[in-house]
Design a protein that fits this description.
homodimer; alpha/beta; 11-stranded mixed beta sheet; 17 strands
């Protein structure tokens, strides 16, 4: 079985190189830009791929919803297996693409859509077959980890480090998807859908942005609280449903995540039989993510074409989980769930009692209306 | 396809539970001890399994070389796929069992033989398909990690912590295989065989025991050198061959391994395209290791029955790799590769220049003849 790659950008070209070196033929590459090195393999017409009976696998690395979505739907309907590195697409059309693939007797794989080079989703799915996974948690975004690591290591402030990240190409000119959490939210939704065998949408995920973290927060967290801070996605199962959220999180200095530096990722699952399994690696980049996309293509080529898809109806309810929070705000009013409050200058540094995630995000919105610089982080114990 | 489990001890019974809960039938269990809960499934006669045409997978969790080896050879010759959690067996008969399986058109899987519950060997093999792996490294033994973590955290000495580990069941009455490195050496040999597609024998692995580490070493390493110490297996590829060794190793306090506490494991691969991938989890235990054995059985049941086996002849040569070492000894003579030497009481604390692994292990034998309490550790930078 031969494959085609849609999109010859960073990830697509990385996967192309990995597959070629490993001796797996990529028959066609779709791209609208010229790429002389591809010779006859290059096409700008998707029908050349769709109508090629030798091509049994279509691997999408275009990004965005359209035309990627239309191409994959057509490929599936034509009986081709599909692979994607596109978290936006997979998160948005998770159910549609799975259902359609099942209907057409093909498989869909998207390991590279979360965790970059880390075989995270692959192993999550493999473990979910025979274990009861009750939690997933992880650093899934390299940009925010780079920023936090630099702030902590060098004592610099957020804006300065963000500019450096942009200069190094680690952060986009518009960094919102990274620092406001949408990127992590999509990866968390996809991970939670697999872990709990259900369908989690990005709008189910409560998000605290990382944007408001200041040097003063880092100092307070690392020196006064003797803890560390990382930007994490969470999916947690209870008897009555699943809580899914993205938050800056305070961790002990001995936590594994504390030593995850630069733009690396680490994602963990917690299973009843296997315990905690953590996966560390590069969360982005041409060859790491290209490797991950290529692995899915190779799996299918070698015969792994089964698709089990029978999602449960699981209620997403962020009021099911209680945890403590760190808050830094100049907002004057106190709430009854505040536990310890220290005032430094114009700001209060607050540790809360246990409060459910929904309630905390609701109150945070109230606080942010009055103090748009307030910062919130969960405490992960 | 149904399976049989050989040996209903800790791992075998764990795998049995995991498979049952996941809906995969275990038709027979071989054990010479009575187990009423198994009813008709229990047999003490291997022929009951060998001659059962419904049983397509034989999963061995007996441990030791015989009768496990004879049983697996018979199973393979009868056309059954085999799975094993037995590092001693896999390390000793790596080539024989693979060749025989290939000849008979069956597969052999042994993920649970290194890393316990961690899908380490599984992912190592998956990545080796399309990447050039140039290094593997890891904490592969829970007992020695428990001992080091307790020594570092509590400031206690080796003998006291070893006794506690024995009382907790983390260490055997005869702890030699763990603390003298044979357990890690076998796991390192198996891992290196997969990573570099060759056949590494346990006698190829140079080993420094952990037995001689003292509180004084931990103090010197953590306070004077501001580093950490872990017990690691290494496989490193160069143009001319592979170096394979097991050593206590000094790591920076920011290293991922530094935050691997208790009896946990973490093993890493370094690939040209994927970069560093690290896998953390429980390196032993009924359900973690049982899960790992069960996963191999499930993979085969779901159709993953291909076996690629065409090992390269790769020279194992520990003089190919140079690194620095930490030595603590009362041995008086100095060597020209000593760099920094500090004398405290009767002992010298030495940091060496770069020296090749073979040479260091050779000199260590000279030193140990005169000072049987000398301690050696590589410096991992």
């Amino acid at each position: 079985m031969k494959s085609a790659i849609l999109g010859f950008g960073i990830v697509g070209s990385g996967a192309y190189d990995v597959l070629n070196r490993a001796g797996f033929e990529v028959k066609k590459v779709l791209d609208i830009r010229p790429h002389d090195e591809l010779g006859d393999k290059l096409t700008s017409n998707f029908d050349d791929i769709l109508n090629d009976k030798e091509i049994g696998i279509v691997a999408e690395a275009i990004g965005g919803l359209e035309p990627a979505h239309t191409f994959l739907v057509k490929a599936i309907k034509a009986g081709k297996h599909v692979v994607s590195s596109n978290k936006h697409l997979i998160c948005t059309y998770y159910d549609e693409l799975h259902s359609l693939a099942k209907e057409n007797g093909v498989t869909i794989k998207f390991t590279s859509s979360a965790g970059g080079g880390i075989p995270w989703l692959y192993n999550l799915k493999r473990n979910a077959r025979c274990d009861e996974i009750y939690k997933i948690m992880g650093i899934m975004n390299g940009t925010t980890n780079f920023i936090l690591d630099a702030m902590i290591s060098d004592g610099r402030d957020f804006d300065e480090v963000l500019k450096e990240a942009q200069a190094l190409g680690y952060a986009e000119a518009n960094p919102s998807a990274d620092i406001d959490g949408l990127d992590t939210a999509r990866k968390t939704a996809i991970s939670s859908s697999i872990a709990f065998n259900t369908i989690i949408k990005e709008e189910n995920v409560d998000i605290f942005s990382l944007r408001n973290i200041k040097k003063a927060d880092v100092d307070y967290i690392t020196k006064k609280l003797n803890m560390n801070v990382r930007y994490l996605g969470f999916g947690v199962k209870s008897d009555d449903g699943v809580s899914v959220f993205v938050e800056p999180a305070l961790l002990g200095k001995g936590a594994l995540e504390t030593n995850v530096t630069k733009n690396n990722n680490m994602i963990s699952l917690f299973g009843e039989s296997v315990g905690r399994l953590s996966f560390f690696g590069q969360g982005a980049g041409k060859y790491p993510t290209g490797n991950s996309l290529a692995q899915d293509v190779i799996d299918i080529t070698l015969g792994d074409t089964k698709l089990d898809y029978a999602p449960n109806e699981v209620k997403v309810n962020n009021s099911l989980l209680k945890r403590k929070y760190y808050i830094r705000t100049s907002y004057g009013e106190s709430f009854d769930f505040y536990d310890k409050v220290e005032t430094i200058g114009a700001d209060k540094y607050i540790i809360t009692k246990e409060i459910n995630v929904s309630k905390m995000h609701e109150v945070a919105n109230t606080i942010l209306k009055e103090d748009s610089y307030a910062f919130f982080a969960g405490i992960e114990e």
